[in-house]
Amino acid sequence: METDRADLERAIAFEDWVGDQLIDKRVPFPGGLGLFATKFPVIWDANKLLVQEASGMTAEDLAAEAERLHSAEGHEHRAISMSDPDLSMTYGDEFAELGWKVDRFVVMAHRGDPPPLSGDTEVHELTAEAMRDVRSKVIGEQPYGQKPEVVAQLLDIDVVLRDAIAIRFFGASTGGTIGSICELYSDGKTAQIEDVATLKEHRKKGLARALLAQVLDLVYREEHDFVFLVADEEDWPKDFYAGMGFVPIGRYQRFLRPGGVDFVSE
Questions:
Q1: What are the tens digits of pLDDT across the range 237-247?
Q2: 12, 28, 73, 172: which could join 211 in a potential S-S bond, CB 3.0 to 4.6 Å?
Q3: Beta-sheet strand order (sheet of 190-198)
Q4: In this predicted model, what pLDDT tens digit does every residue of 199-211 receive, in sequence order?
């Protein structure tokens, strides 16, 4: 559908705009740019090669460029994204054969009316300090949460983004304790819901559902005309989001040789 394609391009452009707020070093290579956030060297998605024009380059060619540029930055990981989602979908097998990890993402746009609000769960807009406290607990439940430098960089990303774009923090509570959180990025018309996460002890209580319903109600009342999120194609949350009115509008792939960590906490 033409609408889905236009919305996919809008979503990717918005993601690129948000990500650019972290980038302070750009290094050209044949076919694209190395994008690096030198304050956050272990964060995969903030330190990557962006392929803008493959020009017949194979995955092996791109991997060699990644090795050269990431090595020069002292990174443990190697990461490659592509500005054209359709192009990214053609390289999966090649990178898999090289032993790289192929991450598959689905871009989902909200369609229709927001789901009904829950009267049983309190949803709050959080201060940056309150969000940092809960997010540190969420990160601590992840395998990478045992590395102090990783935790610090993941938390500090919010500080940089808060100073650069309109970012807001929300939490749903039960018994007076915040158990589920998310972030909202906005330019006034486009809104991206990001980093939806629920602490293990508070799962299966309907907190994330109540949280998303409240945030969706808010963005529509504030007259945003496009709301989207990005989910892992191979994980269950995409089905949860579908039940909240989000529909797939496109897919893309990212290629990794891991080391360090992504800042997506789902």
A1: 999 999 999 99
A2: 172
A3: 25-29, 32-36, 47-51, 78-82, 246-257, 101-110, 226-232, 190-198, 177-186, 166-174, 122-126
A4: 999 999 999 999 9
